[in-house]
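Write out the 3D structure for:
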Amino acid sequence: MAKVEEFVKKISAHQNIMLDTNAIIYFLDGTPDLFDLMRALFELVEQDRLKITLSVISEAELLVKPYREKNSTAIEAVSFFLEEFPNLKINLPNMEISRQAAKIRAESGLRLPDAMIVATAINTQCDLLLGNDIGLMQKASSYLPTVILSEYI
């Protein structure tokens, strides 16, 4: 429990957090160990103490498995979550984000979807990127603060 409290203290210092797709998956799937962290985060979001921004890339990534499995219940659940969860905004790409992503990809070697997530975070004034992809988080830390979830389990 102390790690969850440490995590909450760390993220509470921020206002607008970009989530990498895996963080949302941990929450929606109830992934052991990581779910407690994500539940604490989403409680802060529900209380209007934090805002969450997602890239449209994450929306697409979240829906791949349900579409592949032709699981209409999961498609509806993900869609409902993304559309109705308070203080959660999905940001669409624009020319500025696309150009920033190209620059980030060229500089860091990140895959284009990850570079789009980082560029979206920068464009939407996110003050933290949270996820569990260590390679992404290490490279993204050149552009904005990051939190790696596995450091809190």
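The two ends are 9 Å apart (CA to CA).
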